[in-house]
Amino acid sequence: MKLPEVKNADKYVGLYIVDFGDHCGVGFTPEEVAELLDSVTFADIKVYKIYRAYPDGRMELKGVVSETFQLEKGLFFYASDKDTATDDYRRLVALAVAEAPPGRAKLHLAKHDDSRYVTALIYPAEYDDQFSRWLLDAGYTTQGETIGGADAVRAYYQDAPDILDRCQLWGPFAFQHKTGDDLLAATKLAVLR
Fold first, then answer.
1. pLDDT at residue 173 in the model
2. CA 118 to CA 112: how far, in whole Å?
3. Average pLDDT of the chain, as a whole number
4. Which residues have a Cβ under 8 Å from the Cβ of 2 and sit 6 or more positions away?
């Protein structure tokens, strides 16, 4: 894969490179990659996340399996009483208002049949590292057990807890996402943004 020359490479950190086989494109958002992977035409593309960039245009990449864009991951903060769980939930809402999360996410306050409560933060799997970093940087902690991952999300949905409160969190809108015909046209570009 031969990358195009990129100026101001640091602005691409966190975005994706898509290898289409005969060429590649730099600067796709996770939402754009997910839409491409949903298409039969682009089912075989290779995707790389840009982790670091240097002033000379070099970039450190990490390959991302396509299934990542079809999964949800999450973090589940358990509490033995409703007041503690409600506090966990409200602190996460306040954090999202004070500092936007790295991407969109569902936030639930729920009660399990066994009288346990949970604050569930569920997000697209491609944002897993960023959500962990967001919570660590904010110093977010809870008193109870915390579990996470894609299996935890599946178990949560299967358990079908009683959702007491919910909200949708939105990440920063640094880039306008391309969709449909605009995204299709962008697949021919070497550098999108």
1. 60
2. 8
3. 91
4. 24
